[in-house]
Amino acid sequence: MKDIARFIAGFERFQIKYFQDEQSLFSRLRHSQQPRVLVISCCDSRVDPAMLTDADPGDLFVIRNVANLVPPYVHEIEAPGIRAALEFAVKSLEVEHIIVLGHSNCGGIQALMKGEGITQNQYEFIGRWVSIARHARERVLRELPQKPLALQERACEQAAILLSLENLLSFPWISERVDNNSLALHGWYFDIVSGELLSYSAETAGFEPLISAPGSET
Predict the structure, then answer these.
(1) To which H or E segment does residue 114 belong?
(2) pLDDT by residue (tens digit) across 25-48?
(3) Can you give the residue range of the structural domain that contains 15?
């Protein structure tokens, strides 16, 4: 109950800030939302997109799931909730950016790399879900067969981001907007250990620092 009481007290602080001290924001938001950015992130409790980006209410439209995965437009895994959220964000809200936000130490990717996600020995649903990224796993095992598991997992976390970006383009109403430059796709990777934020660069075909780790040279 202590945790619940803490969250209730947190809502009271939220209420004071946005419904007493800064009423203008929710006076604009109460009738509609107009976020310009959709973030697809992991449901990991350490990776809150709004907290990481210091966003205000109404800034981000967020889809969260295990390992921040996007299934292709046509796929054996139905995931109607994710497809519906994508459709609403792109067709109705007309977001201008989609960010796939992955992170280090991802439990979903760890399950995939260790085989739990493939054999489904321990979970009823997680195995089938993370199998969306099985091609990323296969690529890592093929290219880094002798590397330590931790390095393979990090490589797979990043490869899964790229796979999700590729799957986004399989949605015709997303690829159409990307082609006409009204929608941009981004792949971000948050390093929980260092606090660094990386972004995928097509020029280097790798993840480059967007925000370097605290105390490092820029």
Answers:
(1) helix 107-114
(2) 898 898 899 999 999 999 999 999
(3) 1-32
